[in-house]
Amino acid sequence: MPAQLERLLGLRRPGRRLDAGGVVVGGTAGGIRHLAVDHLVRSDPALCQLAEWDLLHADQELIVWVSLVPATELIRLLADPGVALAPPRIGLAIKHAVADRPSHGDLSGRTFAAGLAHKVRARMSRSLSVAVITFLRAKRSPLDGGLKVECGGIAAVLQKLNLMIHMNAIHSASNDRTIHLDGIRGVAALAVALFHFSRAFDNSLISGSHPINRTLFSTLWNGHFAVALFFVLSGYLFFNKFHSSNVMKGAEAAAKRFLRLSIPILFVCLTAYAIHKLNLFTNQQAALLSGSDWLARWYKFEPDLSLAIIESLWLDFIAFDPARTYNSNLWTISYELFAVIGIIALAIASKNLNNFLKIVLVTGVTAVCYGTHYFEFMLGAALALALKIKQPKASCLIAISVITISLSMSALALPAGISEFASDLLYPLGATLLIAAASINEKIKDAFSNSFFVKLGEFSFGLYLMHFITINSVASSVYAATESLSLTFISYAVSTTVLSIGFTYIIDQPWTKLLNRIFRKRKPLLEQPLEIKA
User: Fold this and answer.
1) Residues 153 and 252 in one domain
2) Which residues constitute the domain of residue 61?
3) CA distance 123 to 62
4) Which of these, 194, 198, 200, lies nearest to 281 by C-alpha position?
5) Residue 84: pLDDT over 70
6) Residue 34 β-bridge partners
7) Which end of the chain has less neighbouring CB within 10 Å, N or C?
8) Does the pLDDT of residue 64 top 70, yes or no?
9) 439 within a domain of the structure (yes/no)
10) Cβ 122 vs Cβ 173: under 8 Å
11) What integer is the mean pLDDT of 214-233?
């Protein structure tokens, strides 16, 4: 075990004795916590010898360490799949209860290291802790069955300390957002921002007269396709998250979803109101010069504080009015609330059905939703169900071919014969194929997990909301003063980046963390004794 990993996990130096009865090594609130549990099992000392560790000398106790380690620190030391927290020859299986449902994970040496390296790299979040259970002293038994250790006492200790073991974060991605999908979300937000810039200051850039807008590359600034991608992603993620949940958790998720959306939107609308009150929206002047009817639509009404508040908490969800809005992008918010609630309800309702009935139910609801934006959410749910049933893996060539088809059918300017089906069918199908391809091939998944895409995904909500404000204020002012498209774009990019980052770190992330604490279930995760076999 590398010395850096030893220090990270807080292991004692070889030759030093551990205190009997178990110790808790503390750290900062968001840091590393360790639980050393001994006196669990007594067995033959010959089976408790490990060449590179000599912690207890002649003692007969088998020591088990349970560590909660920040994923960002742990993954740096696990880049090599050959590095294992348990010796490669020792098989480690952990059976535990998660959310009232038993689950089982194979954490045998190299499998554990390789799986952890991929899964954790796909979730590089400082708020995520990964549970690592390590046998410090064990040796492969001469018998094929190995050494079997029943460690029911761990559960009681963990319950007493209210420590949670997130084994699903290591072994399964079924209940967690994956980072490559956040990367795709970031690209979609950027596409919307680029599309709106063109609509505001040079509509010819997105017209069918440009040959490039008839190619797959135009998906990078096709705002219509990007919105379909947002919706399919939401359907996919929420169906995955709640497919084995219950009604109570679904109701809590619906309430949390409303708060998750409405309060950040309230901040955005109040910011827009302040700019409006100070008469800093110059989109009308810029629209006269650029000839954009789209840019000329906004902020024709008098500054209205009550509108900013009521819109954020009610109108955007129930009765969005494009003529009286502080952010035209908020037309999608009602779908992001009610369609997501519908997906959660569908996932819970289909929980106890067999696969055939699930397919029939999801397919039927998807067909009924065709022609509305709920169709995109249902396609995401259908994709989640399909990947759960089949769990396919594809070669890089097949995945790239699927992505090529996906982007080709999602071009900004499609041929006349099929363009009428773009918004209702082709863009949603293209978004579904893109997410599918990124989910069935590890190299494509890793590409979207690139640090640039990860960071873009982190800022995606702020980028989606704030770019509309900067288009109508900073960018419009620069364009009205210079009529320079390049200077306008630079000012737009800089101001949008600053506001998006500020929104993310000052408003969005703190509010999300607060909601997570409010809705966090206080009940201990472990509901039954832990059975550990080595």
Assistant:
1) no
2) 3-174
3) 32
4) 200
5) no
6) 25, 67
7) N
8) no
9) yes
10) yes
11) 97
